[in-house]
Specification:
Blueprint: H1 4-13, E1 21-23, H2 25-28, E2 64-70, H3 91-109, E3 114-120, H4 128-133, E4 142-145, H5 149-162, E5 165-168, E6 183-185, H6 190-204, E7 209-214, H7 218-228, E8 238-243, H8 251-256, E9 264-268, H9 273-289, E10 292-296, E11 316-321, H10 330-342, H11 350-368, E12 389-394, E13 397-403, E14 407-412, E15 415-418
Parallel strand pairs: 1-3, 2-3, 2-4, 4-5, 5-6, 6-13, 7-8, 7-9, 9-10, 10-11
Antiparallel strand pairs: 11-14, 12-13, 14-15
Length: 419
């Protein structure tokens, strides 16, 4: 592992733009001021797109250009130093980049013709704001981002007026988009997670006592609202809700809400893993008295003690996730093997999100041209995650596209299963 960090940065900063290339911003700024980097694309200014919008006719090209944004923090590191370890804060962004690079190599071997223009979203000079203000994105056929909520909105707004598809590969934020036919979220929103929990509870346990525990945060109150106002499934007949202050749970108050003639389901609506852990521990005595099931928010996956056999004895704990990595899957092994050749360590899950987003949408463009949105609901080109990309609507008005495919994970006595 010695010198691996310096080696990785050398790879990132090198010009890899040959054939199926990775085009780095450091290469772009070498061009003289007289050279035009791209053909400028006109903005589309319309007062109300939703009344009459139609996608432009799809066009197939000999080569496609894809812009990729990920936070690599390259300005924060002095590569002249003999660094031997990647700082923890840099890992997710670099792993996303590695996923993009592995996908690019895979596509090249399949005969695809793409150039991937990778931008460090935390660069002092070529950050998202400055890149948008320049003309660098105007000739892109697709933009893929591993970005913050603020940057997502800037990219989504740009994509909308320039009519370029923008895919948010990591964040579940809707980026305050009200009508954007060129914006896709690959990680399901909190509302989608909550409604999937509601669906399972309603279908499988309609007779249960259902107690929803929620906290003070606005996002936690929003989650409760998503559960109560679900238009597809009715609120359970024995539904109760209880506010939890901090992480202190009064178990007697919970018991007072239960009808002993029925089984009990707890919906744990707290989003802090630390708070959720403490509440789960407080529920252990109740699990010993009754067949208790707990459905929690997606942040439960950050509680590592779920894998311990004695952490929550007798309690079955459910939560949803958009990604499950099967270690024995040939596809997972393929990506991991490629990664280890480059990095030599264990990747974060962001690696797979970088690979999958590039692999899926590159195939979509190669097959259908740009824009490809009329075919976006097909998951034909999924690699690991069987995307279920659907239009999101509010009062019958289109807002954006979102992947709504979720796995339901469950843990009991440290053993994990999923469906």
């Amino acid at each position: 592992m010695k010198h691996i960090f310096t080696f990785v940065l050398f790879m990132v900063l090198s010009n890899l733009a040959f054939g199926q290339g990775i085009v780095l911003p450091v290469d772009e700024v070498k061009k003289s001021g007289k050279e035009s980097f791209v053909k400028r694309r006109k903005s589309v200014d319309r007062s109300d797109w939703s009344k009459f919008y139609r996608y432009p006719k799809a066009v197939k090209k000999l080569k496609y250009n894809v812009a990729v944004f990920t936070p690599m923090f390259l300005d924060s590191v002095d590569i002249k130093k003999n660094l031997t370890r990647i700082p923890k804060f840099m890992r997710p962004g670099l792993d996303f980049y590695q996923g993009v690079e592995i996908a690019a190599d895979t596509l090249r071997r399949k005969g695809f013709h793409f150039d991937f223009h990778v931008f460090d979203s935390r660069s002092k000079y070529l950050n998202i704001k400055n890149v948008i203000q320049s003309d660098r994105l105007d000739s892109m056929d697709l933009i893929i981002g591993n970005a913050s909520v603020r940057d997502l909105k800037a990219l989504a707004d740009y994509a909308r007026v320039k009519e370029i598809n923008f895919v948010s590969a990591v964040s579940p934020s809707s980026a305050k988009q009200e009508f954007n036919p060129f914006f896709t979220i690959l990680q399901p929103t909190l509302q989608t997670h909550v409604r999937d929990l509601h669906r399972v509870i309603t279908k499988k346990y309609p007779e249960d006592n259902v107690v929803y525990l929620y906290g003070d945060k606005r996002s936690e109150k929003n989650a409760l609202r998503y559960f109560e106002e679900d238009e597809l499934y009715p609120t359970p007949g024995r539904f109760k809700k209880m506010k939890v202050t901090g992480s202190a749970l009064n178990l007697d108050q919970v018991k007072a809400l239960l009808d002993s003639n029925y089984h009990t389901t707890i919906v744990l609506g707290t989003l802090s893993p630390k708070t959720s852990y403490k509440i789960l521990r407080a529920l252990v005595p109740l699990a010993k008295e009754t067949r208790l099931k707990v459905f929690g928010m997606p942040t439960l996956e950050m509680i590592t003690s779920l894998r311990k056999t004695d952490a929550f004895p007798g309690m079955k704990i459910y939560f949803t996730t958009a990604f499950v990595k099967e270690a024995k899957s040939p596809k997972t092994k393929y990506i991991l093997r490629k990664y280890k050749k480059r990095m030599g360590g264990t990747p974060t899950d962001v690696l797979y999100k970088g690979f999958e987003s590039i692999y899926f949408f590159a195939h979509m463009m190669n097959k259908h041209g740009v824009p490809f949105n009329e075919h976006i609901t097909s998951n034909r080109f999924s690699f690991l995650t069987p995307y279920k990309i659907m239009p999101v609507k509010k009062k019958e008005k289109f807002k954006y596209f979102e992947n709504k495919y979720l796995y339901m994970l469950s843990y009991k006595n440290g053993i994990m299963t999923y469906e």
